[in-house]
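Target protein
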Amino acid sequence: MDMNIQKHMAFVKTVECGSFTKAAEKLHYSQSAVSRMINDLETEWRIVLLERGKSGVKLTSDGMKLLPYAQSVCREYEKLQMAVDELNGLESGLIRIGTFSSVATHWLPNIIREFRKAYPDIDYELLLGDYTEIEGWISDGRVDCGFLRLPACPDFETIFLERDRLLAVLPEGHPLSPLEKVPVSALCGEPFMLLEKGGKAEVAEIFERCNVTPDVRFTTWDDYAIMSMVEGGLGISILPELILRRTPYRIVAKELDVPAYREIGIAMRNGKTASRAVKRFLDYLRCR
């Protein structure tokens, strides 16, 4: 690999990780090597890129201006390597995927395991976030594709994958737990734990549709934090059925009295310009 590309990658990865040590682990270099490469860049460009401190590193204003260009160089280099691999007849490459917790936990292990049977030399980089973060990563080119709630950004190409029911989540022994279907209005009588995944207010939309207002005491995008709090008797909630599979928490999931679901899909900026590895991965998802 060209030494200048290594320096660019060291710079980009250090910013992503927030420290030389973590970047070194990701890149399989020593901490001193990563630090030295960034020092070399700063010397060559006569610019201070990073502020060093006890809590890690952060971009200077000059570094912030140059980071997008360094990221672009690294992405183009990855595309070059994939093209070289394809010309050599190799089914290798890197697939960068943005995902949220329920897909990462219950879908991706099986998807990747099966896909690797046909393409064992393809590597994966997973970024975990909420819907808004994943859309941003797709737009910025930080990931090749991302799992999202549909509809997504109109500029994206999307593939519908599955409809996921939204269920009422109650502590064991709760008075509503014997019901076959839980009325949405009945969830407004006690503290409510609200799941919101970055601007896509799928749970709030249910209450708006039913013209009722929950007593929201806690809001987070972490599904597992909500399940733990419900188990502890701190309130009740509504969660996607997917995240409730094989849950270790002592909770009860019940269908709501109104149709409630989210549509999960995978999105990308442009399927035509995607790498060969990504295209094969998307083809596999379409057929699964």
In short: The two ends are 37 Å apart (CA to CA). The mean pLDDT is 87. The longest strand covers residues 157-171.
